[in-house]
């Protein structure tokens, strides 16, 4: 994977979802970091190779 490929941070509390998105994004040429929580995501987003721009999509499920 090229060092200049876009970097994506995938955040989800479900390990299977993180793995699915990781695989799909890497297959499409992205570098991927994963996090299981918002707190972990903040730490992973820091540093010299952190994304310059961030988009967030959230989904909530009713657990009734």
TrEMBL record:
Q: Which domain of life is it from?
A: Bacteria
GO process terms (BP): phosphorelay signal transduction system
Annotated spans, Disordered: 38-64
Q: Which InterPro entries match?
A: CheY-like_superfamily, Sig_transdc_resp-reg_receiver
Domain Response regulatory residues, every copy: 7-64
Q: Where is the composition biased (Polar residues)?
A: 55-64
Q: What is this protein called?
A: Response regulator receiver domain-containing protein
The organism encoding this protein is Nonomuraea fuscirosea
């Amino acid at each position: 994977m090229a060092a200049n490929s876009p970097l994506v941070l995938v955040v989800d509390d479900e390990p299977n979802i993180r793995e699915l998105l990781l695989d799909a994004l890497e297959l499409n040429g992205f570098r991927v970091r994963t996090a299981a929580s918002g707190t972990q995501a903040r730490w992973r987003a820091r540093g010299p190779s952190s994304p310059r721009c961030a988009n967030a999509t959230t989904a909530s499920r009713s657990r009734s």
